[in-house]
Amino acid sequence: MLRDNMPKSYGVLDLRESKPLDASNKQAFLHELDRYRQVWNYLIFKTPQVINMPNVIEKTLTERGTNYGEFVSNAEISQNLKAVMHEYTEKLESIHIEALDMIFHKIARILNGDPNYADSWHDIAGYAVLVEQYILKGKQCDTR
Description:
By secondary structure, the chain is mostly helical. It folds into 2 domains: about 1-50, no CATH class; about 70-135, no CATH class. The protein is built from 6 helices and no strands. The chain has helices spanning about 1-5, 25-45, 55-70, 70-85, 95-110, 120-135. The longest helix is centred in the first third of the chain and has 20 residues, at about 25-45. The chain is extended.
């Protein structure tokens, strides 16, 4: 029944006959993932959702690269900063460690990318404020 009502552009995706997605071939994987997304959107919203997922991802990666620099370099800087911090965690609680991990991640983006990208600085301030609030509230997490 679903096959008859589904737009032809989606092709036929019979989940009983489907195989697990193979992530080793990036382009084929993204194509299959997009097919699943299109079928899902049709089932839920009954309208075609025309989004070229690989192009959206590439656009996002390009924008992130402009602001944050190359991902591999960012990962190296971030992990080096975190390695130093993890040598001194005996007095820290998980909230301190997580906030510092995120702050180091943001610092790595600043060092590796655009140091004038204000959102990175805003995020650092946000993580610091979350820990400050936790401490001032007597170490009780807010479960908003």
